[in-house]
Every structure is written in structure tokens, then in C-alpha cells.
Design a protein that fits this description.
Blueprint (H helix, E strand, L loop, with lengths): L8 H37 L39 E4 L3 E2 L5 E6 L8 E8 L5 E8 L5 E6 L5 E8 L10 E5 L1
Parallel strand pairs: 2-8
Antiparallel strand pairs: 1-3, 3-6, 4-5, 4-7, 7-8
């Protein structure tokens, strides 16, 4: 005769072990399905790991630009010649978010390497670690990102001739 004290412990554990096992299997299946769905959504929207910039473990102020002496931009516009122009995709972006700089430097020949420069406040211009190529008629476009916050000025300069676009101000943060 069995009493309450004589419960078969192994027999009582089986339903609990079975329930926990099924929960683990269902959880894993749901996790895999959610991961595949998320990857499909990111791929369909064009966001892939290859498109993202490398992230440092400790945030640093953009690749510490080094001041370099640059020729003073010349104002050699002749009447009827288009003026240099620079446009930022947005005048305010979060730190680390990419944004587009585009414009025209009419004196730059097709294929000329143009340097992006940056400055904080009214400080000196520093080379930003990004270059772009001029297309026909001096048109250019590039994408930059920085994690250094504050209002920053950007311009594009032809390092050989010293010709530069006007400054465009972007607030980071």
C-alpha cells in the first residue's frame, strides 16, 4: 500500500522534464524564425553589415583629423562661370549616422581627387578621412559620418589647385 510518503520521484519528474524540453524546442524554433525574418527585412531594405562603418569599442572623435597646410582657396570665378556649391543632405544628424555631401567645383576636371575638410567652430580646416572624385563639370558626391558632436563645418577642396566650395554647417547630435 502506497502512502503519500512513498511517491515515485522519477515518475513525477517526467512530465516536468518533458514540458521544459518542449518549451526549449519551441523557443529555439521561434528564435530562428524571427532571426531569418529580421535578416530578410534588413536585406530587402538594403541594410547589410557590409554597408555599416566599423564601430570601435570606445567612441573616438572621428579618425582624429590631422591639420595639414592647404593652399588658400582662390576666388578665380569669371563672369558666367558657375560658382562652387556644396549641399548637405541634412543640417542636423545623430552621431555616427551617415549623411551625403554633394555639389559642384567647376574648376575640377573629371577624375580629380577632391578632399573633404572639416572644422569645428571657427578653427582651422582639417582634412577629413574621406575623398571623392570629380565627375564631368566638377560634380561630386560622397557620404561621410562622424561621432564628434557639435556644429561642424564641411567643405570640399581640390588639394592641387586650392579651389574650394563654400562651407556647409551640420550639427551632429
Amino acid at each position: 500500500m502506497d502512502t503519500d510518503d512513498d511517491i515515485d520521484l522519477e515518475r513525477a519528474k517526467k512530465p516536468a522534464v518533458r514540458a521544459v524540453s518542449w518549451m526549449a524546442i519551441v523557443g529555439a524554433a521561434l528564435g530562428i524564425a524571427a532571426g531569418l525574418l529580421g535578416a530578410t527585412v534588413f536585406t530587402a531594405t538594403g541594410i547589410t553589415g557590409a554597408d555599416l562603418p566599423p564601430l570601435n569599442a570606445t567612441p573616438s572623435p572621428s579618425a582624429t583629423p590631422t591639420p595639414t597646410p592647404t593652399p588658400t582657396p582662390t576666388e578665380t570665378s569669371e563672369p558666367g562661370e558657375p560658382e562652387p556649391q556644396l549641399f548637405a543632405e541634412s543640417d542636423r544628424v545623430p552621431p555616427g549616422q551617415r549623411f551625403r555631401l554633394s555639389g559642384v567645383l567647376p574648376s575640377a576636371a573629371d577624375g580629380t581627387t577632391l578632399q573633404v575638410q572639416v572644422r569645428d567652430g571657427e578653427g582651422p580646416w582639417d582634412d577629413f578621412p574621406v575623398t571623392t572624385q570629380a565627375e564631368a563639370d566638377g560634380k561630386f558626391e560622397t557620404i561621410v559620418y562622424t561621432s564628434r558632436t557639435g556644429e561642424r563645418g564641411f567643405r570640399i577642396i581640390d588639394p592641387v589647385s586650392g579651389d574650394a566650395t563654400p562651407e556647409v554647417r551640420v550639427t551632429i547630435g
